[in-house]
């Protein structure tokens, strides 16, 4: 306020009349009153409750009326809770804790990411809460109590009012009431389920909880929530398609610049920038950017090497859009062309990718598709000469991974669901065959240091499947054409700019 007064004072005092300089104190006060009135009026007409996360009122460009999170309505959240209650045994209830804040240093937290089960059932994107779901009370939320100091430093957060108004809880209490209310609920129940991965001492240290666990009344809730999350709703699939589209566009832009961005870290920064600029809130995981031999390290994440000319780059990336993840991998030569050896191995991986995608349909399972991929790759590696006839055990050293995994709110989604379960329409999986030949590989020298993976997202449909990452090129001729034509275009543009500047 003092700064504002000083600026207005300077503006008014700088005005001159003929022959003399005037400062009118009355005018100054009038301007101040006018400014404050306008400021107060503007604020009051746009007074919107701050629930600590986007709402249709605060972010109309992002959310529609009736949505708790972008793309997901309150009706869908209520339906999820109803379906979970139908799965739970009679006279049982569930405790779902929000993810905790994790500190990077004493005062600097890591970027917060909500626990998927808590988000799936409540829509609350903030830490510190505990939700209880039962036939007795419906959704009961215990909410953190924001202190004045926290609001000043971190902003407003959702409280009891938000739990009732925004998240549609039947009951809501401050966290200080947890010790008073939860023990009674535990005593009245025959069975208690909770998310063991995000369990918090706030309730696990309670004497009643520990007694219930001791007599076998406590079980993992994930067997139910993962089952619910396994098949995606139309609203969820819309978000997953958008997330996949963002990742594809970002990776394509990164590939096109890879001739000039010759460091793994640059490519990692580029793909994250492109994802964020297209609306993703974060990366789904730290990008894997393996140049040359680093591509043979399956979850390589150091991204600190210079990419040598002629080497391949394996990039595994995914982003998160409003709680839903994407995941895809492409391998390409930044120089613009595959060598004959690289092309030989790449073509084997590409054909395996295509054949496995053809198997993706209702009734098939990830396990069946995986076993088929092993047959194809083992046969191909023998024909190429990378493996000998009696080296089936060596194959698993070159590819110890599954052909794919479930995908959704987590990258490896619904991990409690067996890979033997027959796939259903609405399930999203990855298909990601790969071969990883380290520099120490005991085989033909020309293949040493090559890592190749081609990963796509696949949605199971009634009549087959849809490849959600189908817009991302993977054919050799398409990749080489893109790299060479784009680079040529950049060179021509630079030449024309120089010509125009010197003419």
Q: What does it look like?
A:
With 503 residues, the chain is of the alpha+beta class. It folds into two domains: 67-229, Creatinase/prolidase N-terminal domain (Creatine Amidinohydrolase, Chain A, domain 1), CATH 3.40.350; 231-488, Creatine Amidinohydrolase (Alpha-Beta Complex). The protein is 41% helix and 16% strand. The chain has 16 helices and 21 strands. The chain has helices spanning 2-13, 25-45, 74-87, 116-122, 148-154, 160-165, 178-188, 201-204, 207-214, 222-230, 234-256, 264-277, 340-358, 366-384, 392-398, 476-502, and strands spanning 16-17, 20-21, 67-69, 72-73, 92-97, 130-134, 138-143, 171-174, 191-194, 218-220, 282-283, 288-291, 313-317, 319-321, 324-325, 328-332, 428-431, 434-437, 450-453, 456-461, 464-467. The strands form seven sheets. A six-stranded mixed sheet has the order 8-7-6-5-9-10, with helices on both faces. Strands 11-14-15 form a three-stranded antiparallel sheet. A three-stranded antiparallel sheet has the order 12-13-16. Strand 1 (16-17) and strand 2 form a beta hairpin. Helix 1 packs across helix 2.
